[in-house]
Specification:
Strand content: 25-35%
Protein name: ABC-2 type transport system ATP-binding protein
Number of strands: 13
CATH class of the largest domain: Alpha Beta
Bound molecules: adenosine-5'-triphosphate
CATH superfamily of the largest domain: P-loop containing nucleotide triphosphate hydrolases
Organism: Paenibacillus catalpae
Helix content: 25-40%
Number of domains: 2
Number of helices: 11
Keywords: ATP-binding, Nucleotide-binding, Transport
Largest sheet: 6 strands, mixed
CATH architecture of the largest domain: 3-Layer(aba) Sandwich
CATH topology of the largest domain: Rossmann fold
Order of helices and strands: EEEHEHEHHHEHEHEEHEHEEHEH
GO molecular function: ATP binding; ATP hydrolysis activity
Length: 296
């Protein structure tokens, strides 16, 4: 089996605090993998280490079978990080041309303008682009060398719905060409729609790993919600068997539970004041919340 990315027991410690904790991960070539996790989970640190921009405190990382610092490996990698910084006094097309010149087999300028949706902006100054357009430029620069692996750290932040849809189509066509795509996102819908594999990270550790349907199946039916009467308290709900977390929105309460069958019976048995009871079908958003809550 040839892996695009191999992390073995990788940790990163900042001032005594573990940002990434013994992370082991193997990514097969041609996979679209989404790293999900709450703020501060360790996603960006992980990507920075894979890219060789940060040194792991311990553990080993291989990219395309070699070292992330090897120039031959680096030439086959593209990355779009969270802060896209544009070069002053260069137009969009000039910026893309500059990045193309770093690679031996770059994609053509028209192709890069097309996949990033920047055809009409090509003669604008890069610094004058909107936030969403600058992210699209960041994507064009990451794709410039026609990379085998492309890393996208929260790529669609600030993009409007149309740009996001177009971007998703581009990612899918890259995957069809056998490219490996690693993306981090807070948009679970994005991970569900794009990824072959979702890895959920919390507190620097992998807490779930599987296809979107496996992740959903793992937690299906784990949320019960209802409108609670004024006498119902968080303490009472937390004391029920299997309740992982209690979330309020006004008088509407969401119970995350490992066993909703048992929980619903207890709620009825103890005559809780409840209206409009729903057992949620276990969408990815709920699965993600349940996984994160149960691993905090
Ligand atoms: N340079 C640094 N020095 C000290 N601590 C850091 C540094 N960079 C990151 N951290 C800490 O490491 C942890 C992981 O951060 P990281 O940016 O990797 O998370 P993330 O999952 O990418 O979060 P987000 O979704 O908010 O981008 C956090 O607790 C963060 O505060």
């Amino acid at each position: 089996m040839s892996f695009a990315i191999e992390l073995d027991q990788v940790s990163k410690i900042y001032q005594g605090k573990k940002a990434v904790d013994q992370l082991t991960l193997k990514v097969e070539k041609g996979t679209v993998i989404a790293l999900l996790g709450p703020n501060g989970a360790g996603k960006t640190t992980t990507i920075s280490m894979i890219l060789g921009l940060k040194q792991p405190t311990s553990g080993t990382i291989k990219l395309l079978g070699g070292s992330p610092k090897d120039i031959k490996v680096r030439n086959r990698i593209g990355a779009m990080l969270q802060d896209v910084s544009v070069i002053d006094n260069l137009k969009v097309a000039e910026t893309i041309e500059l990045f193309r010149s770093y690679y031996s087999n770059p994609l053509s300028l028209p192709e890069l303008l097309r996949i990033s949706g920047l055809e009409t902006e090509k003669d604008k100054m890069a610094a004058s682009l909107s936030g969403g357009q600058q992210r699209r430029l960041g994507f064009a620069l990451a794709a410039a060398g026609d990379p085998d692996i492309i890393f996208l750290d929260e790529p669609t932040v600030g993009m409007d719905v149309t740009s996001r849809q177009m971007f998703w189509d581009t990612i899918r066509s890259m995957a069809e060409k056998g490219r490996t795509v690693v993306l981090t996102t807070h948009y679970l819908e994005e991970a569900d729609s794009l990824a072959d594999r979702i890895v959920v990270i919390n507190q620097g550790k992998v807490v779930a790993d599987g296809s979107p349907s496996q992740i959903k199946a793992e937690t299906t039916g784990r949320v019960i919600s209802f409108t609670a009467g004024v006498t119902v308290t968080t303490e009472q709900l937390q004391a029920l068997p299997g309740v992982i977390d209690v979330e309020w929105s006004g008088r509407r309460v969401k119970l995350h539970s490992r066993d909703t069958d048992q929980l619903i019976m207890k709620l009825i048995e103890q005559r809780f004041d409840m209206k409009d009871i729903e057992i949620q079908s276990g969408g990815l958003e709920d699965a993600f919340q349940a996984i994160v809550h149960s691993t905090n």
